[in-house]
Amino acid sequence: MKRSLTSRYLPAVALALSSIAAACSSDSDGDKTPSIDPTLAAMGKDIFRMDTFGDETFWTDALMMNQVIQAAVDPTTALTVGLKVDAEAIPAEVAAGVQNGTVSLTSPATTIALLKLNAVVGVKGTVEDVGGTDTLTRVGITCALCHSTVDDSFAPGIGKRLDGWANVDLNPGAIIALSPALTAEQKAVFNSWGKGKYDPRYNQDGKNGPQVIPPAFGLLGIDRVTATGDGSDLQYWNRYVAVTQMGGHGTFTESRTGVDVTNGTDDQVSAKLPALQEYQLSIAAPAPPAGSFDQPAADRGKTVFAGAGKCASCHSGARFTDANSKLHDPSEVVSEPEPNGAPSYASRSATKKYRTAPLKGVWQHPPYFHNGSAATLDAVVDTYDTKKSLGLTAAQKSDLVQYLKSL
Known about the structure:
This protein is of the alpha+beta class.
């Protein structure tokens, strides 16, 4: 198995090195714009969508989620907690059965059938015939679970994949809390998070402070990709998540936070990181839906953004962030203190600081700020206006919101 993995992904490392060596162009703001290697990105797309990094060891052997799904998770329940179904993976006869009611959406057996088709976004199952019944013997998760959604073109929660989009409907805490391996106290923490939120440090430091699930689009040319700017590239955070959060086989060590985790005896993560990063960097931020903002107001709001709103002092350049040149102390941001008395998220990180979030596609992923403390873009602007004493008029704030919606 090790030999097979090496032979498959070693070319990704070579391609990554050639990509690094490639020349980068610059835009008028001086922001570097790396090129994307399409071959490497195509490999990464498969990893992003389908690779569990061997995390079945955690989700099956430790959490026993295969048993939970087999016994109690029907499609209706799955959709309720924000899981998505890839309509393009469903055969025509199954799609017709869903539409005419002959395929039950209240039977766990239908969920097993969808997993057998690789149709549940971000969930990878092994289905075997056990005593004449399709049985989910192994289950794991992929990057797409949290960082993809669907366009609802078939039905709510069922449609074509939208990779890189934050799954703002996903309730990962409620899903994890279904595990019979957890204590009542652990389940209470997981159930406290709510949809669209996840705490990627809780299982390391024992502190509960859920963060919004971020998008994985519009990151090309941005070095600091997480809310606290940990690591100098996307591969750093992908390794952290793959090993410490998903339970993938590999190692993550960070002396600044004291995290030192090794799962398994085989590394199923490292060789895949260059291709995975390349695919994620290839995902452009989505344009706002037609008719979703007022263009004349947005034009006026652009002036507020650069002027009275002082937004461009940090949300600068073509990517609307200064993350490549600086990070910010918690005292500089308006998103602290954390909700519900949670400890500062920056204090739990390697940098102890925050990066300025890029704004392209910001319309797609409410709530806002790292902790979701602003439910809407209107609330974002109100928070800045109040905490920074900007003195914006109601008209200026309204125009600024329209500009943000236009990005």
